[in-house]
Amino acid sequence: MMKNTFLLAAILLFLTACVPLRSIKYLIPDLGDSAKFENVTIQKSVTPFHFKYNLQNRVYDSLKNRLDTGLIGTKTNVFLVIKNDSIIYQYLSEGNTLAVRQPSFSMAKSFVGTLIGISLDRGEIKSTDELVINYLPELAKNDEHFKRLTIQHVLDMRSGFDFKERSFSPFSQITRSYYGADLRKIVGKLKFKNEPGKVFEYQSINTQVLAFILEKATGKGIKELMQERLWKPLGAESDALWSLDNDKNIKAFCCINATALDFAKIGRLYLNGGNWEGKQLVSKKWTDITTNPDSLTKLRYKNQFWATRDFKFFKDSISAVSSLGKEGLKYPVERNTDGRYFYAKKVYDYKAQGMFGQSVYVNPQNKVIIVRLGDRQKKVNLHSFVQEVGRSIK
Fold first, then answer.
1. Is the pLDDT of residue 1 over 70?
2. Edge-to-edge order in the sheet of strand 240-243
3. Which of 14, 231, 282, 392 could form a disulfide with 117 if both were Cys (CB 3.0 to 4.6 A apart)?
4. Which PANTHER family match (predicted)?
């Protein structure tokens, strides 16, 4: 009897620890994933920052009516609209409060990108044009492309790594990364399919590489860097959890679990040019480079932040080129699947973004921050919805 009990316990332990079997069991990521992994705690600030409340302002009645209706059925847990440091709209689904931690998914990437900027300011990283192998020399033997891969390529998702981001296979690289495989081993085996700097391809492994560069450059763990250089200085009101892989590496590309109010603070930091209550946490030079409208429009992604998208369509290419000339823009004209021609208009808004429609959206022209957190749904394109709302608030 005891032998059978021991065997059953061993099998259960194997099923829990084995990454492919764990991914089969859970199949698709969900909002409760932090409970499936071991986590470290990112401690809150002893001097928390609080946004003001301005929910009763009648100026925003039409916004409230629109959002109260528009958010129905979107599986949104929290929707905050912040303007000039005041919360002007707040939506909480049943059972949710602003104290409930929500998963960041890939919004975590923007925090890691910011830590790179801080390390650059401090001289720990000399330049983003430095080669990755200056910090991770062990990778040089994998592929000769590492001799040309810069930190900037990795920041902008233009590394060229041979890494498949979209796959539902329990044995795929991204699935193994998410469900606990040793991330240091995965990074240690990286090779290339494209020349660095040539092709934009969103790959989560880039952010993990950045985390390992930060640890090598600073001599500190990514948890300590996050806590000491961002979370506490930003006046976090609550502790956050950050999930680990099976070998105790932080999953830097995802998996911060925190409150909407604390996520909003990364948006406020960039909206204020890296300054937080009189202290420059990251240089204005870094935030200006990250949020430059020309870079955002052309590259779509910069320093681990997403640009929003805004297209202008035409019946023919001549009209599109003419319009570009009138606007003084030099962007490429492309042909849509329906035969129309278009180009991406200049954009000023940007966001930290994760799957399921998670986002911290920033509109510097309107001084607006929007945080949307919730579950996956198909009724509304939530990223477009948030963008539309942010641009409508004057």
1. no
2. 39-42, 240-243, 256-258, 102-103
3. 282
4. BETA-LACTAMASE-RELATED, BETA-LACTAMASE-RELATED DOMAIN-CONTAINING PROTEIN
